[in-house]
Amino acid sequence: MKLLSFVRGLTAAFFLFSAAVTAQEDTEIVTEGVNHIGLAVKDLEASAAFFTETLGWRQAGGDPEYPAIFVTDGNSFVTLWRVNNPETAVPFNRRNNVGLHHLAFTVKSLKALHELHAKFLETEGVRIEFAPEFMGQGPTTHMMIREPSGNRLEFVVPGSRVRAEQEQSQE
User: Fold this and answer.
1) What predicted TM-score, i.e. pTM, was given to this entire model?
2) What does the alpha-carbon distance between residue 165 and residue 138 come to, in Å, rounded to a whole number?
3) Domain ranges (residues) in the chain
4) Can you tell me the distance from the alpha carbon of 44 to that of 84, in angstroms, rounded to the nearest whole number?
5) Is 106 helix (H, G, I), strand (E, B) or coil?
6) Per-residue pLDDT tens digits of the chain, which is 171 residues long
7) Domain 33-87+101-170 of CATH type 3.10.180.10
């Protein structure tokens, strides 16, 4: 448990540190954010339904030959690509595999985060790693799940939004 708390604290420190870091003066930044994330999935339909039905995203296309389904929330774009042989696919292990450790999405409010948590409890194939809790010492609040194909997804309410909600509730 102490290791988990340490890792979460370290994650929070990373976010604070990375926000303050600027590019070296002699290096021009030529990228402009993340265009999309591609996730390999075992069950394309279940993973797509998770994004569209559980999270309320919309399908933005697909490629039945690959096969793939593209989903978006209007800000983020995720491509879901079915592995060649779902029966023999090796599940990702964040401690042993190089690759995407997890994908984190910003959530608009604490209320929305708790509503997602309740929805995840009722969604077949979703495994909750931890329910909404402070990231480090807070007030940033997050939760971590595995979607139906096993990809780790984090849902985060930034501390600035938590503080704004608290201020509004005190008015």
Assistant:
1) 0.79
2) 14
3) 33-87+101-170
4) 11
5) strand
6) 554 554 455 555 555 455 545 556 788 988 888 889 999 999 999 999 999 999 999 999 999 999 999 999 999 999 999 999 999 999 888 888 888 899 999 999 999 999 999 999 999 999 999 999 999 999 999 999 999 999 999 999 999 999 998 898 888
7) yes
